[in-house]
Amino acid sequence: MCFEAKHTDSDRIKQSAVTNEQAAVLDVKEALGALCFVLVSFGFREFYRVPWAVWRDMRAHFGHKYMTPEEGAAYIKEREAAQ
To answer: CB of 44 within 8 A of CB of 61?
Structure first.
């Protein structure tokens, strides 16, 4: 398993929060069979586990190169979803 952790106090997080170097590592690890994610915090209150394939192709999934908490709702950690 491989992940990058990102935080924002904004109402959106840009795809570019993952640097090119970090993206290259995630791509290599995913190609080797690792489960890869970007862990996202909005204001340290909302937490999401976004699959790397979704993050990498944000424009295709969300229509733009950022994610809002509403768009991230599909990737909320199971523990929070059950509460």
So the answer is: no
Alpha carbon distance 39, 50 (integer Å): 6
2-49 residue pLDDT tens: 999 999 999 999 999 999 999 999 999 999 999 999 999 999 999 999
Q: How many residues does the chain have?
A: 83
Give the Cα separation of 1 and 58 in Å (integer).
21
pTM for this predicted structure: 0.87
**φ, ψ dihedrals at 36, nearest 5°:** -120, 135
How many Å is the Cα radius of gyration of the chain? 12
66 in Cβ contact with 50 (< 8 Å): no
Residue 8 to residues 1, 34, 66: CA-CA distances in angstroms?
A: 23, 26, 12
